[in-house]
Design goal:
The protein is mostly beta strands and 124 residues long. The protein has strands at residues 2-6, 9-12, 17-24, 32-38, 45-50, 56-58, 66-71, 76-81, 90-97, 113-116, 118-123. Strands 1, 2, 3, 4, 5, 6, 7, 8, 9, 10 and 11 form an eleven-stranded mixed sheet that branches. The protein starts with a strand and ends with a strand.
Length: 124
């Protein structure tokens, strides 16, 4: 499965952006999916996850502001971001995880497939 993230850009604090992740070369329906982000000098951190049963989870820092969703028929995942803050500035990555992988969903090492990152910059 190949993943491609898109939709990043520059916005002012308080603004909104939507990130898309499109899959090819296979169906995403059986995978758990996630968005991670990495700011300069920081480790890659989990932003949000959605399981193959549409159960979602969010990092505390984005809960209530970000929404993750998926459309298996279109092989597509979305991250809707609102009330953006300067600390949301990072490169955002989409990732896919085998459902029977017992590694914690918060760990990048548990994900088999990654898209190239897309830059999100939030200015104050």
């Amino acid at each position: 499965v190949q993943l491609q993230a898109s939709g990043g850009g520059s916005v002012q604090a308080g603004g909104s952006l939507s990130l898309s992740c499109t899959a090819s070369g296979g169906t995403i329906s059986t995978y758990s999916l996630a968005w991670f982000r990495q700011a300069p000098g920081n480790q890659r951190e989990l932003v949000a996850t959605i399981t193959n049963r549409d159960s979602t989870d969010y990092a505390a820092s984005v809960k209530g502001r970000f929404t993750i969703s998926r459309d298996n028929a279109k092989n597509f995942m979305l991250l809707q971001m609102s009330s953006l803050k300067p600390e949301d500035t990072a490169v955002y990555f989409c990732a896919a995880k085998y459902p029977n992988n017992d590694v914690s969903s918060s760990l990048p090492s548990g994900y088999a497939y990654w898209g190239r990152g897309t830059q999100v910059t939030v200015s104050s």
